Amino acid sequence: MNQVIAHEVDFTDYKSDVTPVWCPGCGDYAVLSAITKALAGLGLARENVALISGIGCSSRIAAYTSVYGFHGIHGRALPIAQGLKLARPDLTVLCAGGDGDGFSIGGNHFMHACRRNLDLTYIVMDNNVYGMTKGQASPTSAADWTESKLTPEGPGVPPFQPLDIALAAGASHVARCFSGKVQMLTKTIAEAIQHPGFSFIQVISPCVTYRPEMRDFKNLVHESFTEACTDRREARRRLIDDDGFSLGTLFKSVEPSYKPSHRNSEPLDELERQFAL
Amino acid sequence: MNSLELFLAHALRLEEDSAVRYDEMADALSVHRKSEVARLFRKMAHYSRLHLAEAERRAAGLVIPRLKAWEYQWPGDDSPENAPAEEADYAMNDRDALLLALKGEQGAYAFYSGVAADTADDGIKAAASEFAAEEGEHVALLEDWLSRTPDTGPVIDLDPPAALA
User: Fold this and answer.
1) Do B69 and A38 touch (CB under 8 A)?
2) Among A117, A153, A175, A223, which residue carries the largest CB count within 10 Å?
3) A249 touches B: beta carbon within 8 Å
Protein backbone atom coordinates (compact mmCIF):
# COMPACT_ATOMS: atom_id res chain seq x y z
CA MET A 1 0.00 0.00 0.00
CA ASN A 2 1.40 3.39 -0.96
CA GLN A 3 0.44 6.02 1.62
CA VAL A 4 -0.17 9.43 0.10
CA ILE A 5 0.36 12.76 1.84
CA ALA A 6 -2.09 15.61 1.65
CA HIS A 7 0.17 18.65 1.16
CA GLU A 8 2.04 19.47 -2.03
CA VAL A 9 5.63 18.40 -2.34
CA ASP A 10 8.41 19.17 -4.77
CA PHE A 11 10.84 16.57 -6.08
CA THR A 12 13.71 18.40 -4.41
CA ASP A 13 12.11 17.54 -1.05
CA TYR A 14 13.08 13.92 -1.76
CA LYS A 15 16.75 14.74 -2.28
CA SER A 16 19.17 14.72 0.63
CA ASP A 17 21.89 17.26 1.36
CA VAL A 18 24.57 14.77 0.36
CA THR A 19 26.34 15.79 -2.85
CA PRO A 20 26.61 12.92 -5.33
CA VAL A 21 30.13 11.85 -6.21
CA TRP A 22 29.15 10.36 -9.55
CA CYS A 23 31.21 11.45 -12.53
CA PRO A 24 29.95 14.42 -14.54
CA GLY A 25 27.81 13.01 -17.35
CA CYS A 26 26.81 9.86 -15.46
CA GLY A 27 23.30 8.63 -16.29
CA ASP A 28 22.59 7.94 -12.64
CA TYR A 29 21.86 11.64 -12.02
CA ALA A 30 18.83 11.29 -14.27
CA VAL A 31 17.70 8.19 -12.38
CA LEU A 32 17.92 10.09 -9.10
CA SER A 33 15.89 12.88 -10.65
CA ALA A 34 13.30 10.42 -12.00
CA ILE A 35 12.91 8.57 -8.69
CA THR A 36 12.43 11.80 -6.73
CA LYS A 37 10.00 13.16 -9.33
CA ALA A 38 8.04 9.91 -9.30
CA LEU A 39 7.77 10.00 -5.51
CA ALA A 40 6.67 13.64 -5.63
CA GLY A 41 4.19 12.91 -8.39
CA LEU A 42 2.65 10.12 -6.36
CA GLY A 43 2.71 12.29 -3.24
CA LEU A 44 4.29 9.61 -1.09
CA ALA A 45 5.31 10.59 2.42
CA ARG A 46 9.07 10.31 2.81
CA GLU A 47 8.77 8.44 6.09
CA ASN A 48 6.73 5.74 4.35
CA VAL A 49 9.30 5.04 1.64
CA ALA A 50 12.53 3.05 1.89
CA LEU A 51 15.23 2.79 -0.75
CA ILE A 52 17.55 -0.18 -0.41
CA SER A 53 20.74 -0.48 -2.43
CA GLY A 54 23.79 -2.70 -2.80
CA ILE A 55 27.34 -1.74 -3.70
CA GLY A 56 28.67 0.15 -6.69
CA CYS A 57 28.49 3.65 -8.13
CA SER A 58 24.73 3.54 -8.65
CA SER A 59 24.08 1.98 -5.24
CA ARG A 60 25.15 5.24 -3.65
CA ILE A 61 21.74 6.54 -4.65
CA ALA A 62 20.14 5.71 -1.31
CA ALA A 63 22.26 8.38 0.38
CA TYR A 64 21.18 11.00 -2.11
CA THR A 65 17.50 10.76 -1.25
CA SER A 66 15.70 11.88 1.89
CA VAL A 67 13.57 8.74 2.24
CA TYR A 68 14.68 5.95 4.54
CA GLY A 69 17.69 4.22 3.05
CA PHE A 70 19.87 1.20 3.56
CA HIS A 71 23.17 1.00 1.70
CA GLY A 72 23.59 -2.76 1.90
CA ILE A 73 26.33 -5.16 0.94
CA HIS A 74 27.34 -6.28 -2.52
CA GLY A 75 24.56 -8.08 -4.36
CA ARG A 76 22.31 -8.31 -1.31
CA ALA A 77 20.01 -5.35 -1.80
CA LEU A 78 17.09 -7.53 -2.84
CA PRO A 79 17.15 -9.86 0.20
CA ILE A 80 17.18 -6.80 2.45
CA ALA A 81 14.39 -5.13 0.49
CA GLN A 82 12.26 -8.28 0.53
CA GLY A 83 12.81 -8.76 4.25
CA LEU A 84 11.78 -5.18 4.87
CA LYS A 85 8.67 -5.54 2.72
CA LEU A 86 7.64 -8.71 4.53
CA ALA A 87 8.16 -7.09 7.92
CA ARG A 88 6.61 -3.75 6.97
CA PRO A 89 4.14 -4.30 4.12
CA ASP A 90 2.80 -0.79 4.70
CA LEU A 91 6.03 0.76 3.38
CA THR A 92 6.73 1.60 -0.25
CA VAL A 93 9.97 -0.27 -0.89
CA LEU A 94 12.34 0.61 -3.71
CA CYS A 95 15.51 -1.27 -4.43
CA ALA A 96 18.30 0.02 -6.66
CA GLY A 97 21.76 -0.84 -7.87
CA GLY A 98 23.88 -1.59 -10.87
CA ASP A 99 24.24 -4.43 -13.33
CA GLY A 100 27.21 -5.99 -11.54
CA ASP A 101 25.51 -5.82 -8.17
CA GLY A 102 22.17 -7.06 -9.46
CA PHE A 103 22.99 -9.56 -12.16
CA SER A 104 26.34 -10.99 -11.10
CA ILE A 105 26.98 -10.81 -7.37
CA GLY A 106 23.24 -10.69 -6.69
CA GLY A 107 22.09 -12.64 -9.74
CA ASN A 108 20.69 -15.48 -7.71
CA HIS A 109 18.69 -13.11 -5.52
CA PHE A 110 17.35 -11.39 -8.63
CA MET A 111 15.81 -14.59 -10.00
CA HIS A 112 14.21 -15.56 -6.72
CA ALA A 113 12.93 -12.06 -6.04
CA CYS A 114 11.17 -12.28 -9.40
CA ARG A 115 9.65 -15.61 -8.32
CA ARG A 116 8.38 -14.28 -5.00
CA ASN A 117 6.76 -11.32 -6.70
CA LEU A 118 6.68 -9.19 -3.56
CA ASP A 119 5.29 -5.70 -4.00
CA LEU A 120 8.48 -3.71 -4.50
CA THR A 121 10.25 -1.87 -7.31
CA TYR A 122 13.74 -2.87 -8.43
CA ILE A 123 15.63 -0.34 -10.53
CA VAL A 124 18.89 -1.47 -12.11
CA MET A 125 21.11 1.25 -13.54
CA ASP A 126 22.80 -0.75 -16.25
CA ASN A 127 26.02 0.81 -17.57
CA ASN A 128 27.57 -2.40 -18.92
CA VAL A 129 30.66 -1.95 -16.75
CA TYR A 130 32.05 -2.05 -13.21
CA GLY A 131 32.68 1.67 -12.92
CA MET A 132 33.60 1.99 -9.25
CA THR A 133 36.53 -0.40 -9.68
CA LYS A 134 37.69 1.44 -12.81
CA GLY A 135 36.15 -0.28 -15.77
CA GLN A 136 35.99 -4.07 -15.78
CA ALA A 137 33.54 -6.07 -17.89
CA SER A 138 30.19 -6.60 -16.18
CA PRO A 139 27.48 -9.22 -16.81
CA THR A 140 25.91 -7.02 -19.46
CA SER A 141 29.12 -6.13 -21.31
CA ALA A 142 29.20 -7.38 -24.87
CA ALA A 143 31.27 -10.54 -25.47
CA ASP A 144 33.64 -8.59 -27.71
CA TRP A 145 34.09 -5.49 -25.53
CA THR A 146 37.87 -5.22 -25.41
CA GLU A 147 38.48 -1.96 -23.54
CA SER A 148 39.21 -3.46 -20.15
CA LYS A 149 42.76 -4.49 -19.36
CA LEU A 150 41.38 -7.50 -17.48
CA THR A 151 39.64 -8.83 -20.60
CA PRO A 152 41.73 -7.53 -23.50
CA GLU A 153 40.04 -9.94 -25.89
CA GLY A 154 36.59 -9.27 -24.47
CA PRO A 155 34.71 -11.22 -21.79
CA GLY A 156 34.01 -13.91 -24.38
CA VAL A 157 30.57 -14.81 -23.09
CA PRO A 158 27.21 -13.49 -24.23
CA PRO A 159 25.80 -10.71 -22.06
CA PHE A 160 23.19 -11.40 -19.41
CA GLN A 161 19.66 -10.68 -20.68
CA PRO A 162 17.85 -8.99 -17.80
CA LEU A 163 14.41 -8.75 -19.35
CA ASP A 164 14.40 -12.38 -20.49
CA ILE A 165 15.49 -13.58 -17.07
CA ALA A 166 12.97 -11.40 -15.24
CA LEU A 167 10.16 -12.65 -17.44
CA ALA A 168 11.18 -16.28 -17.17
CA ALA A 169 11.61 -16.07 -13.40
CA GLY A 170 8.19 -14.56 -12.75
CA ALA A 171 8.47 -10.78 -12.38
CA SER A 172 5.03 -9.29 -12.90
CA HIS A 173 6.08 -5.86 -14.21
CA VAL A 174 9.06 -5.66 -16.58
CA ALA A 175 10.31 -2.50 -18.29
CA ARG A 176 13.35 -0.95 -19.88
CA CYS A 177 14.13 2.77 -19.92
CA PHE A 178 16.97 5.09 -20.84
CA SER A 179 18.39 7.70 -18.49
CA GLY A 180 18.35 10.26 -21.30
CA LYS A 181 14.56 10.06 -21.48
CA VAL A 182 13.78 11.40 -18.03
CA GLN A 183 10.06 11.99 -18.44
CA MET A 184 9.44 8.47 -19.69
CA LEU A 185 11.65 7.03 -16.94
CA THR A 186 9.79 9.02 -14.28
CA LYS A 187 6.42 7.81 -15.49
CA THR A 188 7.61 4.21 -15.67
CA ILE A 189 8.97 4.35 -12.12
CA ALA A 190 5.68 5.80 -10.87
CA GLU A 191 3.73 3.03 -12.61
CA ALA A 192 6.09 0.41 -11.22
CA ILE A 193 5.62 1.73 -7.68
CA GLN A 194 1.87 1.51 -8.11
CA HIS A 195 2.02 -2.01 -9.55
CA PRO A 196 1.05 -4.59 -6.89
CA GLY A 197 3.94 -7.00 -7.35
CA PHE A 198 7.63 -7.22 -8.20
CA SER A 199 8.46 -4.50 -10.71
CA PHE A 200 11.75 -4.60 -12.52
CA ILE A 201 13.12 -1.68 -14.54
CA GLN A 202 16.35 -2.00 -16.46
CA VAL A 203 17.61 1.56 -16.96
CA ILE A 204 20.27 1.95 -19.60
CA SER A 205 22.43 4.48 -17.77
CA PRO A 206 25.62 5.41 -19.60
CA CYS A 207 28.99 5.43 -17.85
CA VAL A 208 30.60 8.20 -19.87
CA THR A 209 33.95 7.75 -18.14
CA TYR A 210 34.65 4.05 -18.76
CA ARG A 211 32.22 3.49 -21.64
CA PRO A 212 32.35 6.83 -23.49
CA GLU A 213 30.80 5.20 -26.55
CA MET A 214 27.58 4.91 -24.53
CA ARG A 215 26.94 8.60 -25.21
CA ASP A 216 25.73 7.42 -28.60
CA PHE A 217 23.10 5.16 -27.05
CA LYS A 218 20.66 8.08 -27.19
CA ASN A 219 20.68 7.58 -30.96
CA LEU A 220 20.11 3.83 -30.68
CA VAL A 221 17.23 3.60 -28.21
CA HIS A 222 13.71 3.39 -29.56
CA GLU A 223 10.32 3.22 -27.87
CA SER A 224 9.17 -0.14 -29.19
CA PHE A 225 7.34 -1.52 -26.17
CA THR A 226 4.52 0.91 -26.74
CA GLU A 227 1.90 -1.08 -24.88
CA ALA A 228 2.60 -3.53 -22.09
CA CYS A 229 1.77 -7.18 -22.80
CA THR A 230 -0.39 -8.87 -20.21
CA ASP A 231 0.44 -12.30 -21.60
CA ARG A 232 3.85 -13.63 -20.55
CA ARG A 233 4.27 -15.77 -23.68
CA GLU A 234 3.56 -12.81 -25.92
CA ALA A 235 6.12 -10.73 -23.99
CA ARG A 236 8.73 -13.44 -24.56
CA ARG A 237 7.95 -13.42 -28.25
CA ARG A 238 8.51 -9.67 -28.36
CA LEU A 239 11.95 -10.16 -26.86
CA ILE A 240 13.02 -12.45 -29.70
CA ASP A 241 13.45 -9.39 -31.92
CA ASP A 242 14.74 -7.11 -29.17
CA ASP A 243 18.07 -5.44 -29.96
CA GLY A 244 18.64 -4.39 -26.37
CA PHE A 245 17.56 -0.82 -27.05
CA SER A 246 13.78 -1.25 -27.05
CA LEU A 247 12.23 0.99 -24.43
CA GLY A 248 8.91 0.88 -22.60
CA THR A 249 6.97 -1.43 -20.35
CA LEU A 250 7.21 -4.90 -21.83
CA PHE A 251 4.97 -6.83 -19.47
CA LYS A 252 2.49 -6.08 -16.72
CA SER A 253 0.19 -8.51 -15.00
CA VAL A 254 -1.34 -8.76 -11.54
CA GLU A 255 -0.22 -12.11 -10.15
CA PRO A 256 -0.04 -13.75 -6.71
CA SER A 257 2.75 -12.73 -4.33
CA TYR A 258 4.63 -14.90 -1.88
CA LYS A 259 2.93 -14.78 1.50
CA PRO A 260 4.80 -16.20 4.48
CA SER A 261 2.87 -17.91 7.23
CA HIS A 262 2.45 -15.50 10.12
CA ARG A 263 2.80 -17.73 13.13
CA ASN A 264 3.32 -16.10 16.48
CA SER A 265 6.94 -15.31 17.22
CA GLU A 266 8.66 -17.34 19.90
CA PRO A 267 9.50 -15.73 23.25
CA LEU A 268 13.13 -14.67 23.53
CA ASP A 269 14.11 -17.38 26.01
CA GLU A 270 12.71 -20.02 23.68
CA LEU A 271 14.75 -18.62 20.77
CA GLU A 272 17.86 -18.64 22.94
CA ARG A 273 17.16 -22.24 23.88
CA GLN A 274 16.90 -23.24 20.21
CA PHE A 275 20.25 -21.64 19.40
CA ALA A 276 22.08 -23.12 22.38
CA LEU A 277 24.88 -25.50 21.40
CA MET B 1 -1.21 25.16 -23.95
CA ASN B 2 -4.70 26.49 -23.52
CA SER B 3 -4.31 28.79 -20.53
CA LEU B 4 -1.82 31.25 -19.10
CA GLU B 5 -1.85 29.23 -15.88
CA LEU B 6 -0.81 26.07 -17.70
CA PHE B 7 1.92 27.92 -19.55
CA LEU B 8 3.26 29.39 -16.31
CA ALA B 9 3.21 25.92 -14.72
CA HIS B 10 5.52 24.83 -17.52
CA ALA B 11 7.73 27.91 -17.18
CA LEU B 12 8.08 27.40 -13.43
CA ARG B 13 9.03 23.76 -13.87
CA LEU B 14 11.42 24.51 -16.74
CA GLU B 15 13.32 27.14 -14.78
CA GLU B 16 13.51 25.09 -11.58
CA ASP B 17 14.62 21.98 -13.46
CA SER B 18 17.26 24.00 -15.26
CA ALA B 19 18.63 25.50 -12.03
CA VAL B 20 18.76 22.09 -10.39
CA ARG B 21 20.52 20.58 -13.44
CA TYR B 22 23.14 23.37 -13.53
CA ASP B 23 23.72 23.06 -9.79
CA GLU B 24 24.07 19.30 -10.17
CA MET B 25 26.72 19.75 -12.84
CA ALA B 26 28.49 22.38 -10.74
CA ASP B 27 28.53 19.96 -7.81
CA ALA B 28 29.82 17.14 -10.00
CA LEU B 29 32.63 19.26 -11.40
CA SER B 30 33.49 20.55 -7.91
CA VAL B 31 33.86 16.98 -6.69
CA HIS B 32 36.37 16.50 -9.50
CA ARG B 33 38.15 19.73 -8.56
CA LYS B 34 37.18 21.62 -11.70
CA SER B 35 36.33 24.81 -9.85
CA GLU B 36 36.34 27.16 -12.86
CA VAL B 37 33.85 25.08 -14.81
CA ALA B 38 31.80 24.56 -11.68
CA ARG B 39 31.63 28.33 -11.17
CA LEU B 40 30.30 28.75 -14.69
CA PHE B 41 27.52 26.24 -14.12
CA ARG B 42 26.71 27.88 -10.79
CA LYS B 43 26.29 31.17 -12.60
CA MET B 44 23.89 29.56 -15.09
CA ALA B 45 21.89 28.14 -12.18
CA HIS B 46 21.67 31.67 -10.78
CA TYR B 47 20.28 32.97 -14.08
CA SER B 48 17.68 30.21 -14.11
CA ARG B 49 16.64 31.11 -10.57
CA LEU B 50 16.24 34.75 -11.59
CA HIS B 51 13.90 33.59 -14.35
CA LEU B 52 12.12 31.33 -11.91
CA ALA B 53 11.52 34.30 -9.61
CA GLU B 54 10.15 36.27 -12.51
CA ALA B 55 7.80 33.44 -13.48
CA GLU B 56 6.69 33.25 -9.85
CA ARG B 57 5.91 36.99 -9.87
CA ARG B 58 3.79 36.54 -12.97
CA ALA B 59 2.04 33.57 -11.40
CA ALA B 60 1.15 35.49 -8.22
CA GLY B 61 -2.60 35.55 -7.72
CA LEU B 62 -3.25 32.88 -10.34
CA VAL B 63 -4.20 29.29 -9.62
CA ILE B 64 -1.32 27.37 -11.16
CA PRO B 65 -2.13 23.73 -11.90
CA ARG B 66 0.05 21.18 -10.08
CA LEU B 67 1.20 18.74 -12.74
CA LYS B 68 2.94 15.46 -12.13
CA ALA B 69 6.39 15.26 -13.70
CA TRP B 70 5.13 13.09 -16.56
CA GLU B 71 2.20 15.39 -17.37
CA TYR B 72 4.27 18.28 -18.72
CA GLN B 73 3.97 18.78 -22.46
CA TRP B 74 7.62 19.10 -23.37
CA PRO B 75 8.63 18.95 -27.01
CA GLY B 76 11.43 16.45 -26.23
CA ASP B 77 12.50 13.85 -23.70
CA ASP B 78 13.31 16.23 -20.88
CA SER B 79 12.64 19.70 -19.54
CA PRO B 80 13.78 21.91 -22.45
CA GLU B 81 16.32 24.11 -20.69
CA ASN B 82 18.09 21.15 -19.12
CA ALA B 83 21.62 21.11 -20.48
CA PRO B 84 22.34 17.65 -21.91
CA ALA B 85 23.93 16.07 -18.86
CA GLU B 86 25.37 13.11 -20.75
CA GLU B 87 27.66 15.50 -22.62
CA ALA B 88 29.35 16.55 -19.39
CA ASP B 89 32.71 15.03 -18.68
CA TYR B 90 35.16 15.08 -15.82
CA ALA B 91 37.81 16.37 -18.24
CA MET B 92 35.72 19.13 -19.80
CA ASN B 93 37.14 22.63 -20.09
CA ASP B 94 35.48 26.05 -19.91
CA ARG B 95 34.60 26.03 -23.59
CA ASP B 96 32.96 22.60 -23.34
CA ALA B 97 30.90 23.88 -20.45
CA LEU B 98 29.82 26.97 -22.36
CA LEU B 99 28.78 24.84 -25.33
CA LEU B 100 26.76 22.63 -23.04
CA ALA B 101 25.07 25.59 -21.36
CA LEU B 102 24.37 27.07 -24.80
CA LYS B 103 22.36 23.95 -25.72
CA GLY B 104 20.28 24.38 -22.58
CA GLU B 105 19.54 28.04 -23.28
CA GLN B 106 18.79 27.32 -26.93
CA GLY B 107 16.33 24.64 -25.78
CA ALA B 108 14.52 27.14 -23.56
CA TYR B 109 14.49 29.74 -26.33
CA ALA B 110 13.03 27.24 -28.80
CA PHE B 111 10.38 26.17 -26.29
CA TYR B 112 9.17 29.67 -25.45
CA SER B 113 9.35 30.79 -29.09
CA GLY B 114 7.37 27.73 -30.15
CA VAL B 115 4.66 28.39 -27.58
CA ALA B 116 4.46 32.05 -28.62
CA ALA B 117 4.17 31.09 -32.27
CA ASP B 118 1.57 28.38 -31.78
CA THR B 119 -0.84 29.96 -29.33
CA ALA B 120 -3.89 32.03 -30.16
CA ASP B 121 -4.11 33.35 -26.60
CA ASP B 122 -2.79 36.90 -26.32
CA GLY B 123 -1.79 36.52 -22.68
CA ILE B 124 0.24 33.37 -23.34
CA LYS B 125 1.77 34.91 -26.46
CA ALA B 126 2.92 37.99 -24.56
CA ALA B 127 4.42 36.03 -21.68
CA ALA B 128 6.06 33.41 -23.89
CA SER B 129 7.50 36.09 -26.20
CA GLU B 130 8.95 37.94 -23.24
CA PHE B 131 10.51 34.79 -21.83
CA ALA B 132 11.84 33.84 -25.27
CA ALA B 133 13.46 37.27 -25.60
CA GLU B 134 15.20 36.80 -22.26
CA GLU B 135 16.43 33.35 -23.20
CA GLY B 136 17.59 34.82 -26.51
CA GLU B 137 19.69 37.30 -24.54
CA HIS B 138 21.28 34.40 -22.68
CA VAL B 139 22.02 32.64 -25.96
CA ALA B 140 23.67 35.79 -27.31
CA LEU B 141 25.62 36.24 -24.08
CA LEU B 142 26.93 32.69 -24.22
CA GLU B 143 27.82 32.97 -27.89
CA ASP B 144 29.79 36.11 -27.13
CA TRP B 145 31.46 34.40 -24.18
CA LEU B 146 32.32 31.44 -26.42
CA SER B 147 33.89 33.68 -29.03
CA ARG B 148 36.30 34.91 -26.33
CA THR B 149 37.05 31.46 -24.92
CA PRO B 150 39.69 29.46 -26.77
CA ASP B 151 39.52 25.70 -26.93
CA THR B 152 42.34 24.58 -24.68
CA GLY B 153 41.69 20.87 -25.24
CA PRO B 154 40.70 18.36 -22.59
CA VAL B 155 42.08 18.75 -19.10
CA ILE B 156 45.15 16.55 -18.77
CA ASP B 157 44.41 13.40 -16.78
CA LEU B 158 47.50 11.70 -15.37
CA ASP B 159 45.54 8.55 -14.54
CA PRO B 160 43.01 8.11 -17.34
CA PRO B 161 40.50 5.25 -17.53
CA ALA B 162 41.84 2.32 -19.56
CA ALA B 163 39.16 2.90 -22.14
CA LEU B 164 40.49 6.39 -22.80
CA ALA B 165 44.23 5.76 -22.55
Assistant:
1) yes
2) A175
3) no
